[in-house]
Amino acid sequence: MTRISLTGQVHRHLLPHLSDDTIAIDATAGNGHDSLFLAANIGENGRLYAFDIQRQAIENSRKRLAAAGLSARVTLMQTGHEHMAAQIPEIHHGRVNIIMFNLGYLPNADKSLITTTATTIKALNAAIAMLAGSGILSILAYPGHPGGREETAAVIQWAQNLPQQTFTLCMHNPDQNPQTSPQWIEVIKLDD
Ligand SMILES: C[S@@+](CC[C@H](N)C(=O)[O-])C[C@H]1O[C@@H](n2cnc3c(N)ncnc32)[C@H](O)[C@@H]1O
User: Fold this and answer.
1) How many CB atoms within 10 Å of residue 138?
2) How many beta carbons lie within 10 A of that of residue 52, not counting itself?
3) What confidence tens digit (pLDDT) does each residue in 14-28 have?
4) CA neighbor of 67 nearest in space, from 101, 108, 106, 39
5) Probe ligand 1: pick from 7, 28, 101, 138, max atoms within 8 Å of CB?
6) What's the mean per-residue pLDDT of the chain?
7) For residue 89, how far is its CA from the centre of ligand 1 (angstroms)?
8) Is the pLDDT of residue 1 over 70?
9) Is the pLDDT of residue 2 over 80?
10) Which of 58, 111, 112, 115 is the most exposed place for a label (fewest CB within 10 A)?
11) Is 108 exposed, middle or buried (0-12, 13-18, 19+ CB in 10 A)?
């Protein structure tokens, strides 16, 4: 049996929720794999906003999207995702359908440049304010690197404290140990 990676599982899960005019955010562009997935499935009328603090990540994403002929529907920004509210046009505030966070460090690069608890929580608060009714926020958190355990615990606690009348929380693979295993946390905004 072929094993599907966790990011592959996330893509497979999100795919039916993407359509021709989806507005999406990739909060951690990295090497552009999630951005490519989103850009390829939001259609010509969709828009993707992708953030990363590292020039190398933005460049890698830019190249990947250009090679697929998808650059025109993507705005890449070399800035922290905690600034998303100021960066995304107001017309899309409250209208974003899908938001992905893939926390941690850029693979094959400086492992000290990681997402951090304070900015991640700030960005998550900005992200839920961006969501449309039925919008989905997907977060992959990794407790295995230095700082990752605290960040993963903080993200889970943040998600568990969201108001239940507005958001549904889904912990995928709930049997896995949050101290050691990657965690996939999904927050769905209920319909307006
Ligand atoms: C695991 S990688 C993302 C993988 C990526 N989604 C992909 O498909 O290749 C995490 C990324 O988060 C970025 N990052 C760290 N702090 C950030 C911040 N405050 N805002 C945006 N990106 C950040 C890192 O530079 C790194 O590239």
Assistant:
1) 23
2) 27
3) 999 999 999 999 999
4) 39
5) 28
6) 95
7) 21
8) no
9) no
10) 112
11) exposed
**How far lies 110's CA from each of 7, 63, 74, 113, 141, in Å?**
21, 20, 25, 6, 18
Q: Is position 1 within any domain?
A: no
CATH of the domain at 31: 3.40.50.150
Distance of alpha carbon 92 from alpha carbon 99, whole angstroms? 13
Q: Is the pLDDT of residue 148 over 90?
A: yes
Domain that includes residue 82, residue range: 6-189
Tokens of 2: 């072929």
Q: For the chain, what is the domain count?
A: 1
Distance CA 117, CA 56 (A): 22
Q: Using one digit for the tens of pLDDT, what is the confidence trace for 74-123?
A: 999 999 999 999 999 999 999 999 999 999 999 888 888 899 999 999 99
Q: Which atom of ligand 1 is nearest to the CA of 100?
A: 6
